[in-house]
Design a protein that fits this description.
Elements lengths: L2 H12 L2 H14 L8 H24 L3 H29 L4 H12 L3 H14 L7 H20 L19 H10 L1 H30 L1 H19 L8 H24 L4 H12 L5 H9 L5 H31 L4
Length: 336
């Protein structure tokens, strides 16, 4: 696929219903219009997306040889460690954030965004580009170590910290935090969906495909309308962010995404799968990571992390990042 084709796909992505709904949410936020979904609807749509992605991945995983998935899982674990460390140290050079806030940010960027990932898969399906069904497994693999490493960096790797240093004046609740990460809604629904899809296979999935397949893009469109509104509301604090944080929110995803794409290709994934892995690496969590950091880092500033991850990185990835990571995957596939 040449550059012109990739540009054409990017233009198609810009006019897709989910992305246009996201832009509508941004506009509504700028006009201070209240079109937020009721909390019950928001929770239901997010649970639907998690379960649907898990089930589809489980069905595909059933037909995947174990040898084919070991390499991608191994590189995903490594990326789950490397990415938050890189984010933590880059933030030290580019911003004046405290160690606690840098660790919280690292946990967010070491984790993943389900909606960004889902939009990437919809983009690939619309473009007719194949990808490995087990990429959902990689989403789950990346979710856990990224958060844990970020929290450890925030706390200096210790479980008991000195009260003399304000950046370290916290005692992590590791048991409760790990429970939140592992048994939280995101991981539990993804893992449950994977097991359900793997157990039922294509025959079982055919019975529920009208619900989890046919209306999937419609539900994603509604969810992205809500995400656009929330992201737009974060922009009101943009003037206080500082150039370093803005640069990080827009540059780091490209760096992490490129590394993720290259790692996927090295692990034997195709262009579509490597692009999906790169998108995961470029994304930042705004569901699982905030819950975990709220428990382990009560002194962290959630406004900074949400402004960066949801207010800047999330819309950047949806509008620019997804087609960019595909172009990077296509380019690198010629050499790897």
């Amino acid at each position: 696929m040449d550059t012109g084709s990739t540009l054409g796909l990017a233009l198609v992505n810009l006019t897709s219903p989910p992305l246009l709904a996201f832009v509508l949410g941004l506009v509504a936020a700028g006009l201070r219009s209240d079109i937020r979904l009721p909390e019950a609807v928001y929770q239901a749509t997010s649970m639907y997306l998690l379960l649907a992605i898990g089930i589809k991945g489980g069905v595909a995983l059933r037909d995947t040889e174990a040898a084919d998935v070991i390499g991608p899982i191994a590189v995903s674990v490594a990326l789950g460690v490397v990415i938050p460390i890189a984010a933590f140290w880059l933030l030290r050079w580019w911003t004046r954030l405290s160690r606690i806030d840098r660790g919280a940010m690292a946990a967010h960027y070491g984790s993943t965004s389900l909606v960004t990932f889902t939009a990437a898969l919809v983009f690939l399906e619309g473009a007719g580009i194949a990808f490995e069904g087990y990429v959902t497994t990689l989403l789950t693999v990346l979710e856990i170590p990224g958060i844990i490493v970020g929290l450890m960096l925030a706390l200096g790797g210790s479980t008991a910290v000195s009260s003399g240093d304000p950046d370290r004046a916290e005692r992590p609740h590791w048991g409760e935090t790990l429970r939140e990460v592992i048994l939280g809604r995101s991981v539990l629904l993804l893992l449950g969906g994977l097991l359900l899809g793997w157990a039922t296979g294509p025959v079982g999935y055919a019975r529920i495909e009208p619900f989890f397949g046919d209306i999937f893009t419609g539900v994603l469109t509604v969810f992205l309308l809500e995400m656009g509104l929330v992201a737009g509301q974060q922009w009101r604090a943009l003037a206080k962010a500082g150039p370093g944080l803005v640069a990080f929110a827009l540059v780091f995803p490209v760096l992490a995404g490129t590394v993720g794409v290259a790692a996927g290709l090295v692990a034997g994934m195709g262009v579509g799968g490597a692009m999906a892995l790169g998108t995961l690496c470029a994304s930042a969590s705004y569901i699982a990571a905030p819950a975990a950091t709220r428990l382990a880092l009560p002194n962290a500033n959630p406004g900074v992390t949400l402004l960066s991850s949801l207010g800047m990185t999330f819309p950047f990835n949806l509008i620019v990042g997804i087609p960019l990571y595909l172009a990077i995957a296509q380019f690198l596939s010629r050499w790897i």
